[in-house]
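Incident log entry.

Two folding requests arrived from the same account within the same minute. Monitoring flagged them as a possible duplicate submission, but the sequences differ. Recording both here for audit purposes.

Request one:
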Amino acid sequence: MSNYQNTTTALMDITKRPEIIFSAGRGSWLEDQSGERYLDFVQGWAVNCLGHSPDVLVRALSEQAAKLINCSPAFLNEPMLRLAKDLAEVSGLERVFFTNSGGEANEGAIKLARKWGDLHMGGAYEIVTLDGGFHGRTLATMSASGKPGWDVIFEPKVPGFVKVPINDIDALSAAVGERTVAVMLEPIQGEAGVFPVSHEYLQVARALTEARGALLILDEIQTGMGRTGEMFAFQGLGVRPDIMTLGKGMGGGAPLAALLASEAVSCFAHGDQGGTFNGNPLMMAAGQAVLDTLRWPGFLETVRARSGHLQVGLEALSNRHGLGTTRGEGLLLALDVGQPRASEIVAAALDRNLLLNAPRPDSLRFMPALTVSEDEIDLMLDRLDQACLAAL
C-alpha cells in the first residue's frame, strides 16, 4: 500500500472524490492500489479517447521525449508543424494555435472574435452563448458559460456575453444585433447532460452570423476528435464554423487542446496570443498519435457501430427499469433515468467496479474509450442493470 494513502489532505479540496487511489490503467480498465479493476466509462470526461495507456500513445511520447521535450514556443519544431498541417487538412480551417487545455482554447477563441470585431465590425464585442453551455473555468469562459449557479460566483464577471436557450430560434434571432461579434456554442452540450443542438438551430446560427458579418464559434472540446463518430461533429451537421476549439480527447490523456480558425479571421497580431508550453514537441507527438489513429481506415465506422450497440443496450435496460430515453451521438450518450436518482445509480455502479458519471440529478453520461469493445459494452450494461436494481 502506498505511503500516500493518508496524505490526501495536502490536496486542495475542490471536489468530492471516493477513497479509491488508482495506480494503473489499460484500455477500458483502471486498477487501484489493491489490484481491484474498474470498468471505466468516464475516461477522464472523454479525455482518454484511445483508452488508458494505449501502445501508440506510449510509444509516441517515449520516442519524442528521447528527442526533444520543449524548445520554447518562440521557435518552430517539426511535430508542431506536422500536427498543425494535418489538423488544417482534416478540418478545413487553415490556421491552428495549440494550447494546453480546452478552457485556454476557448479563451483564445473569445479573444480572436473580439479582435475581429475591433478590426472589422466597428468594435462589436458581444458573444451570444447558450444556457447550459460549458466553455471552461477561466473568468472569461465561466462568463461565457451558462452553467446554473455560475452567474453569482467570482464576481465581477467578464462582460459581453448574451445567453439564450438552446434550440430557441426566436431567442437566438432576437439576441444577434449590432454589438454581436459571434455566436458560440457546443454542438452537443456535454456538461449540461448531453443535449444536442438541432440541425435547424445550427443552420440558423450560421445564417444569422453570415448576414451580420459575425463569426460562428463551435466549441468541439468534448465532441471533436471522433467522439460523435465523425472527426468533428460539425462535419455531420453540414455547417462549417469560422472558429473551432478542440481539447479533451485531442491528446489521448495528455494535456493538449487547440484553437482553429479560417485564414480570413486569423487576425491576431504578434504578441496578442501565446503560452509558455503551447506547441511543445512532446504534446504534439501525443496529438499526432491520436489523429493518425482516428484516421485509420474503418476507425470512425467502428465508433459508430459501437455507438449503435450501446444505444440499443441502454434502450433495453431503460425498458426493463422504466427509465427514460437516450440522447447524444457516437460515444457521447446520456440516459434519462426519469427521476433524480442518477447519483445513487453512480454510487451503486462504483460498488460493482463500474465508473459512470451523472452530469444531472436525472441523467447518466457515457463517455467510453473510442476503442471500447462490444464485450465491454455488454459487461457495462450488465453491471449497470445490477446497479439500477440496487438503487431504484
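Request two (distinct sequence, not a duplicate):
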Amino acid sequence: MNDKLTVSVLGTGIMGAAMARNLARAGHTVRAWNRSRAKAEPLAADGIAVAGSPAEAVEGADVVLTMLYDGPAALDVMRQAASALRPGTAWVQSTTAGIEGVADLAAFAREQDLVFYDAPVLGTRQPAEAGQLLVLAAGPVDGRQKVTPVLDAVGARTVWTGEDGAEGSATRLKLVANSWVIATTNAMGEVLALSKALDVDPQNFFDAIAGGPLDMGYLRAKSALILDERLSPPQFAVSTAAKDARLIVEAGERGGVRLDVAVASAERLERAAAQGHGDEDMAAAYFASFDEGHFQS
C-alpha cells in the first residue's frame, strides 16, 4: 500500500505548524489552514499548500488532522469544511477538547460518515518540531493502517487506548497527564517565588535535590525559562494551559472528585494571563505569585 497521503492540517499554531512540517518532511502532500492566514503562510516555504478555507484544505484529503484551540473551535472549523469532506475520510482529532468536547466531535464524525480518531498529543514546541510527540490515540483497528503514517510522522510513539474514539479514552488519559504537567509547572513557579521572598538562591535548592528522587529534568527546564527570561516564544502558552486546567477541573466534577490543586492552577494561570503573560510559556504562571507592578524574575 502506498503510505504517502494527502493530509489536511487545520490549525497551525505552535503544535499544528510543527506537525504539518513533519508530515511534509515524511513525503506526504500537506494542505494547511489557519484562522489567521498569516500564521500559516510561512509553511509554504516547506512545500505545504496554504488554503483559504477549511473546505479548500480538506478537498480530496485522505486524512484530516485538527489541532485547534478547543473542542468548540474544532467543531466550528469542521462544520465549515463539511461540504468538501468525503465519506470515509479519516479524521485525526488532536485538539485537547475535553470530555464533552470530544463527544460532540465524535457525533459530528458520525453525521458526516468520517472515521474518527481521538488522538491528542503529549509534548510542547520542541518535541513537536522534532516529530517526537507522544500520541495518545483511540479509534477503529480497521482504519489504523491509513492513519499510522500520519501518527508516525508527528510522534515518536503512539499509545492506543481503545478502539472507539467516541469514548474519549485518549482524551481522558491526556487530561490525567496534563493535570500532572500543570500542577508541576505551578509548583515550580511557587518554589521560585518563595525563594525570592526568602532571599534563597534557587541554585541552592537545585543543588540540594540534585540526583535524588525529588529532582526532575522538567523542573529544571521550566525553571530555566523563568531565570533566564526565555518565556517567548512559548513551548506551551499560559492561555492554552489555563484552558486545559479548566477542562481538567470540569472532568473532575463530572467524575465526582474534588481537584483543589487543579482549581488553584487554573486560577493562577488565568491571573498570569490577566497580567499580560497569556502568550508566554506556561512557566510564566510564576508571575501570578506577585501583585501587578511588583514582579521581577
